[in-house]
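Repro:
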Amino acid sequence: MEAMELFKEIGANPKAYARAWKAKTGGKVIGTLCSYAPEELILAGGALGYRIVGGSGSISKADAHLQTYSCSLVRGALDDALNGELDFLDGAIFPHTCDSIQRLSDIWRMNAGTGFHLDVVLPVKLNTKSAHDYMTAVMRKARTDLEAVLEKTITDKDLQAAIDTGNGIRSAMQRLYEIRSDRPGTIAGSDVHAIVRASMVMDRNDFLDSLTQVTDALERRPEPESTAAKRIFLSGGVCNLPDVYGVIESAGGVVVGDDLCTGSRGLTGLIDTGGDPMDAIADRYARRAICPAKHAGITSRGDDLVHLAKASRAQGVILLFLKFCDPHAFDYPYLKSMLDAEGIPSLLVELEEQTASQGQFRTRCEAFMEML
């Protein structure tokens, strides 16, 4: 499929795509480091949202500003900025998320040289009316701030068009995830990762058109022959590590669903289209699947993980955490406890982008598959 090849090309070199898009359109490119960045506001402002998911290679310059026990996402992103790898950015938006990214925001503002800098201080607790009111106020301020730096009035019509595009993408991605779950083997895990990666950097309207072509083609494919591969659900952070899918598949597994930061977590929840667009946008960001840096109930993350694993008929869950990711690490004990209570086996794997050991990961995956 031509569209699938495009996704792979963009996933392999997203910076080249962003530079080409900027040269072609003359538009502004805005870097983000979290799926809580207000995508619809960026799109409505005529800009391209570019998700920064880690570094391009070994880390050197960032260690002058960050402790070495900061996660590789934070250190790698800063290293890219300091090395001029992100010189195509016109600005950056930092949502209120984990402690490391919040502190990176201050360092980035003073050292990165990537244009304007906006902090969007979203609430941490999301399950109260006051939190929803605060979320709405923050989103309205973000709209005003973006209008100022983009020198463009963001109208309700612009917002509605962006909402329609965002809803279209989330609906199409839901179709893709259903195909992967219902007919394992129809699409490789690394291909799904390439699609998700492209969704975070590609012109969103172009992405929706290409994604629709891919999902339509996948639905027309004959159902693959059943295999003995074990049905695996992934949970965690995984940002820029597509090779994990190939390792899992070679070890005898097939990924049938995920709850990843760079996966389904940021692609959940449609935005209502019947009322005030800003209220609707704020409501969606309050209702979407939460990450470990947000709170919507004592066991909400565990409840969601168990539900999703069961819905995808997973035989086991692999939790993939970036090394030194405290929010995910703090969640792990109770997530494992809830999975154990439901009789769902799990495996915890800590990874670091710059020093990933495929051999060790493969050995652990093979042992886990044999246990299932």
